[in-house]
Amino acid sequence: MLDISHVYKTFNKGTPVQKEALIDLNLHLDEGDFVTIIGGNGAGKSTMLNAVAGVFELDKGHVSIDGHDVTKDPEYKRAKYIGRVFQDPLRGTAGDMWIEENLAFALRRGKNRSFKWGISNKERERFVELLKTLDLGLEDRLDSKVGLLSGGQRQALTLLMATIKKPQLLLDEHTAALDPKTAKTVLEMTNKVVTENHLTTLMVTHNMNDAIKYGNRLIMMDHGHVILDISGEEKKNLKVPDLLAKFEEVSGKEFFNDRMMLAK
């Protein structure tokens, strides 16, 4: 469902701040794989998601989604294949629009635009049923402006919007801006939506315990490529000290990242 093959990306080439962000990056995801991604600052985690989403052109390499080579496709053309949730709850929704209007835009992602606009009763009924799954009471607030929602409610809605078309899902530290209780709730929602819909998912997180707990695979990145790929029984039995030891064994150095260490 997702292939990243020999991808390279360097920013600010030929300048004093040149940065090799992705170096011969290779990753293959089968249908339904839920992969958590960890790594230190500058490891290439978010850059990899941006490469999949088409935010920039690659220096080398190829990206394929569901059998389609999208390497040369711009970001807007990949929208029909990809749903994305960012760290900032404000990025995934339009605050001045109603909840049902936001969901309608998400439902029409990847389709040709026309002058015809309107939400059918059938669509509205579907939105109500989807919102009920969040258990936040939003199904009774279809005509409420999204800007009135809390950060957690807004991120939950963004998650619903990102998955409404059953796409490949990219989650870029989507709970990092939330308080711990709300973050846990949104993570549980994420796990439920991904698992029940068998969505192929990449989730960047700074929390090692969350990386171990969720998903069927865990990868660790360092200097723009994957250095660890753990799945199956090995992942189920994994503990944070084991993960740190594996990093040191593979990289030859001690793993240290203030934010991630605090999140253990």
Describe the 3D structure.
Helix content is 35%, strand content 23%. By secondary structure, the chain is α/β, with parallel strands linked by helices. It has two domains: 2-81 and 167-262, Rossmann fold; 96-166, no CATH class. The strands form two sheets. A six-stranded mixed beta sheet has the order 6-7-8-3-9-10, with helices on both faces. Helix 5 runs parallel beside helix 6. The radius of gyration is 19 Å and the shape is globular. The chain starts with a strand and ends with a helix. The model has no long low-confidence stretch (mean pLDDT 90).
CATH architecture of the largest domain: 3-Layer(aba) Sandwich
Could you list the spans in which at least 5 consecutive residues all have pLDDT below 50? Answer: none
CATH topology of the largest domain: Rossmann fold
Q: Assign the CATH class of the largest domain.
A: Alpha Beta
- Spatially, the strands of the biggest sheet line up as 6-7-8-3-9-10
Q: What overall form do the CA principal axes indicate?
A: globular
User: Can you summarize the main beta sheet?
Assistant: 6 strands, mixed
How much helical structure, as a percent, in the residues?
25-40%
Structural class: alpha/beta
Order of helices and strands: EEEHEEHEHHHEHEHEEHHH
- Mean pLDDT comes to 90
User: How far do the termini sit from each other?
Assistant: 31 Å
- Say which CATH homologous superfamily of the largest domain is assigned: P-loop containing nucleotide triphosphate hydrolases
